[in-house]
Protein backbone atom coordinates (compact mmCIF):
# COMPACT_ATOMS: atom_id res chain seq x y z
CA UNK A 1 0.00 0.00 0.00
CA UNK A 2 1.36 3.43 -0.78
CA UNK A 3 1.70 6.15 1.84
CA UNK A 4 -1.29 8.23 0.68
CA UNK A 5 -3.67 5.27 0.62
CA UNK A 6 -2.51 4.11 4.04
CA UNK A 7 -3.05 7.57 5.53
CA UNK A 8 -6.61 7.63 4.15
CA UNK A 9 -7.27 4.16 5.58
CA UNK A 10 -5.95 5.14 8.99
CA UNK A 11 -7.99 8.36 9.02
CA UNK A 12 -11.11 6.24 8.43
CA UNK A 13 -10.20 4.00 11.39
CA UNK A 14 -8.69 6.39 13.93
CA UNK A 15 -9.87 9.73 15.22
CA UNK A 16 -7.38 10.52 17.99
CA UNK A 17 -3.80 11.75 17.91
CA UNK A 18 -1.60 8.81 18.89
CA UNK A 19 0.67 11.13 20.89
CA UNK A 20 -1.58 13.44 22.88
CA UNK A 21 -4.87 11.50 22.64
CA UNK A 22 -6.95 14.49 21.57
CA UNK A 23 -9.33 14.36 18.63
CA UNK A 24 -7.69 14.78 15.24
CA UNK A 25 -8.69 17.85 13.26
CA UNK A 26 -7.78 18.94 9.77
CA UNK A 27 -4.04 19.21 10.31
CA UNK A 28 -2.95 15.57 10.58
CA UNK A 29 0.43 14.01 9.81
CA UNK A 30 1.23 10.36 9.35
CA UNK A 31 4.45 9.46 11.15
CA UNK A 32 6.59 6.34 10.76
CA UNK A 33 7.12 5.95 14.49
CA UNK A 34 9.27 2.82 14.75
CA UNK A 35 11.21 2.42 11.53
CA UNK A 36 11.93 5.61 9.64
CA UNK A 37 12.23 5.95 5.87
CA UNK A 38 15.89 6.85 6.30
CA UNK A 39 16.56 3.51 8.03
CA UNK A 40 15.66 1.29 5.09
CA UNK A 41 17.09 0.91 1.60
CA UNK A 42 15.10 2.40 -1.27
CA UNK A 43 13.90 -1.06 -2.34
CA UNK A 44 12.14 -1.52 1.03
CA UNK A 45 10.68 1.97 1.52
CA UNK A 46 7.12 0.98 0.66
CA UNK A 47 7.24 -1.91 3.17
CA UNK A 48 7.41 0.50 6.10
CA UNK A 49 4.07 2.01 5.10
CA UNK A 50 2.27 -0.45 7.32
CA UNK A 51 -0.36 0.35 9.93
CA UNK A 52 1.87 -1.22 12.60
CA UNK A 53 4.53 1.39 11.84
CA UNK A 54 2.43 4.47 11.10
CA UNK A 55 0.80 6.76 13.61
CA UNK A 56 -1.53 9.69 13.09
CA UNK A 57 -0.52 12.87 14.86
CA UNK A 58 -1.54 16.47 15.07
CA UNK A 59 0.91 18.45 12.97
CA UNK A 60 1.98 20.30 16.12
CA UNK A 61 2.67 17.05 18.05
CA UNK A 62 4.61 15.73 15.07
CA UNK A 63 6.68 18.91 14.75
CA UNK A 64 7.49 19.07 18.45
CA UNK A 65 8.08 15.39 19.28
CA UNK A 66 8.33 13.50 15.94
CA UNK A 67 11.98 12.50 16.01
CA UNK A 68 12.39 12.11 19.74
CA UNK A 69 12.86 9.20 22.10
CA UNK A 70 9.81 10.48 23.95
CA UNK A 71 7.68 9.80 20.86
CA UNK A 72 8.84 6.17 20.62
CA UNK A 73 8.39 5.65 24.36
CA UNK A 74 4.86 7.05 24.17
CA UNK A 75 3.81 5.16 21.03
CA UNK A 76 5.37 1.75 21.74
CA UNK A 77 2.84 0.72 24.43
CA UNK A 78 -0.04 2.08 22.33
CA UNK A 79 0.99 0.05 19.30
CA UNK A 80 1.74 -3.05 21.40
CA UNK A 81 -1.76 -2.80 22.83
CA UNK A 82 -3.27 -2.12 19.40
CA UNK A 83 -1.52 -4.89 17.42
CA UNK A 84 0.30 -7.11 19.91
CA UNK A 85 3.98 -7.72 20.42
CA UNK A 86 4.12 -10.63 17.98
CA UNK A 87 2.54 -8.65 15.12
CA UNK A 88 5.04 -5.83 15.63
CA UNK A 89 7.98 -8.25 15.70
CA UNK A 90 6.59 -9.94 12.59
CA UNK A 91 6.54 -6.54 10.85
CA UNK A 92 10.18 -5.90 11.83
CA UNK A 93 11.29 -9.39 10.78
CA UNK A 94 9.49 -9.02 7.45
CA UNK A 95 11.74 -6.13 6.49
CA UNK A 96 14.87 -8.30 6.63
CA UNK A 97 16.99 -5.45 7.89
CA UNK A 98 20.70 -5.96 8.51
CA UNK A 99 20.39 -4.55 12.00
CA UNK A 100 16.99 -4.77 13.63
CA UNK A 101 17.97 -5.27 17.28
CA UNK A 102 17.17 -1.65 18.22
CA UNK A 103 13.60 -1.95 16.91
CA UNK A 104 13.01 -5.32 18.54
CA UNK A 105 14.32 -3.95 21.83
CA UNK A 106 11.84 -1.06 21.73
CA UNK A 107 8.97 -3.54 21.40
CA UNK A 108 10.15 -6.23 23.82
CA UNK A 109 11.30 -3.85 26.55
CA UNK A 110 7.82 -2.30 26.81
CA UNK A 111 6.03 -5.56 27.57
Summed up, what is this model?
This protein is mostly helical. It has helices at 3-13, 59-65, 69-83, 85-94, 101-108, and strands at 28-32, 54-58.
Features:
single chain; 111 residues; mainly alpha; two-stranded antiparallel sheet; 5 helices; 2 strands
Description:
- Strands 1-2 form a two-stranded antiparallel sheet.
- The radius of gyration is 13 Å and the shape is globular.
- Helices cover 46% and strands 9% of the residues.
- Helix 3 (69-83) packs across helix 4 (85-94) and helix 4 (85-94) runs antiparallel to helix 5.
- The chain contains 5 helices and 2 strands, in the order αββαααα.
- The protein has 111 residues and is mainly α.
Spatial order of the strands forming the largest sheet: 1-2
Q: How can the largest sheet be summarized?
A: 2 strands, antiparallel
- The ordered string of helix (H) and strand (E) elements is HEEHHHH
Helix content: 40-55%
- Mean pLDDT reading: 94
Calculate Rg over CA atoms: 13 Å
Computed structural class: mainly alpha
In DSSP terms (H or I, runs of 4 or more residues), the helix count works out at: 5
Distance between the termini: 29 Å
Which strand-content bin applies to the residues?
A: 5-15%
Secondary structure layout plus pairing:
Elements: H1 3-13, E1 28-32, E2 54-58, H2 59-65, H3 69-83, H4 85-94, H5 101-108
Antiparallel strand pairs: 1-2
Helix pairs in contact: 3-4, 4-5
Amino acid sequence: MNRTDLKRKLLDERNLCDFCGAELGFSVDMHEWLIKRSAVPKSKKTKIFDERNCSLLHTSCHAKFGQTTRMKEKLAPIFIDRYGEQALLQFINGLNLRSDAEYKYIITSMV
